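Appendix B, record 7
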Amino acid sequence: MNSPAAARSDGVQTAADAADSATDGLTPGFAVSAGLNAVALALWGWQSGEWLGAACFALAVLLPALTALRLALAERDQHRIADLSTVLFVAIAASFVATRDFSHGLLQAFVWLPGALLPLLLAQTMDVSGRLPLSALFRYLRKQKRRGEDVDDPDVDLSGVYLAVTLVCAGVANRGGPGYYAGVVLLAALALYAARPRRAAPLLWVAPLALATLLGYGGQLGLSAAQNAFEDWLSEQRFSARFLDPLRSTTRIGELGRLKADDAIVARVLLPREARERPALLARASYNRYTEGTWVARHADLLPMASAGDGTLWPLGDAATVTASATQRRIPIMHRADRGKLLLALPADSVAVADLVASQVRGNRYGAVQAFTEAPWVRYTALAVPEADVRGSVNAAADAEDLHLPPSEAALLGRIAAELGLHGLAPAIALQRVHAHLAQFRYSTVRGRVNLAGDTPLAEFLTRSRSGHCEYFATAAALLLRAAGIPARYVTGHAVQEWSALEGAWIVRERHAHAWTQAWLDGRWVALDATPPDWLAEEDALAPLWQRLADLARWAGYRWTVREGGETRLLAWAVVGVALLILVWKLLTEGGLLRLAGRGAAPARRWPGRDSEFYALESRLARSVPRDQAEPLLAWLQRAAVGLAPDERAALLRLARLHYRHRFDPAGLDPAARSELSAGVAQLLPRLARRRAPAARIPV
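Structure tokens (predicted):
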């Protein structure tokens, strides 16, 4: 039931004046108390660490319970508030993305979703009706209503939805520990307890809740284990060079079908096109033991490395070599990290890594350097010297492991080495002969023939097919050199061959992943790339037609991610400024949210029967006997009329029935009944005004 205050142009009324009739005909929803939502916000603050925000949000949620003030919002106002919540969330998301990388920024924006939805919840709880039209949530319903279509637009209750959103967003913060799950179970139990059937036995409610709690806890443990297993499986796949393992490289030697490589850009060498210091190859890891298609690095634990200078210089060997060489080359590289870790891509003659900001850097004796950093793209500078020896390099000197031959191919490798006359040759000549022999083979990423002879895939490559991809060539070269008594290792990394005019840099794609050989020659490691040089052309021929367009999008995303601090602040302020302009525009256009007195604005809501004179009687009686917020009108009148004379009580109830007909009967009142209501109120109101107000009864 709406009091006269509901019809005032200021759109504000007290809770005591709010009517119970506003709840008639509304679609029921899962409603929860403001206190429960406040407790949920406390859990959100604990999980997200945003205690100040949680306190402010909880205070706002409790506002309807702390004050009698209510707003008479028109439907258009609630639509506008819903739009404001949308704009607010977009502004929050844009601000976080502008100051962080995209994925972390978007997740953080969802953490703050309860704050963005708070105006929408208050539009319901602070309104006299206590509900929100469904069209506030769906713009297409508004369009249908504007077109005059017959649309079902029930009022809904968002308090339960807000509780669920708050709990989910608290989990997005990912604090860890059992506290979050315990809090969710407790709050869900309180909400469901309030909504339980009153006739049901407590056991029938407690048992399903306990079962759901146990199943939920077990399910999340299983989901976590499945996620870890999937990530472990994914890390073993070789389709992405970002998942390179410094201790193990499982090749695709022997696999059937075509090798598929991604066009994604994993690194950029920031040198001019004509730069002479551009390295042709960037190594990431090397391995010394081959068994059945897999190379492993034995005795190659990753150990912490010490920084020098300002903490961004990481010597790879003898620190004196870093500054001793007059021919030192500086090769700036921007490399994509994976989940906080990066296996650096470095030229073979690197002696140090400069300009590397990392929480920890580890390396092993076979050239692998791993950095731990939170940045999605990591910039560093490789310092290289042509005359670097083993003291100035992270690569350890050759040992017995670098001569090991796999038993399954040892005899074949020895026979081919003898046929090539490798035994007794000078190492440099042996390298040339192995390279010349493998140059007669053909590069191919397709293997469509099944090996029926029972030979190993490597043996088939060396004796019959003479066709394969870089892993075949690198493995064959390393093992043939070992068969000739020359220490050799298998190396993985990238080729640097593609210049991007768009970016003004050399770009390295995942399909540029490559494998080659290192041979121990004259006391140092020398690279031997036995793969035919046309392999890059064949890989490039597999590029899709839309690669240029995709590269433009990749470059835009890259520039967004690595923008400078000044650019970030400018973007953040620009986002905030645009959001404020939109908010102001939404508030000021079409009359604003509140109908302020004296501005000639339209009434907040045009309820049927809002001109009823009975509201004056209701207001007069409420001064003596306040009406409870959820108390039906007729029940309250029976209580308020205790001190009235019998004829006054009868007249009051007769006028209440006329008011109900005027308020809810689609046909309304005929002229005679309308006159009776007006005259009856005019006669009874002075008598009530002269009567001394009785003390209000406190309901029990």
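Remarks on this record: The longest helix spans residues 202-236. The chain has five domains: 4-195+568-591, 202-235, 265-399, 403-499+513-558, 614-690.
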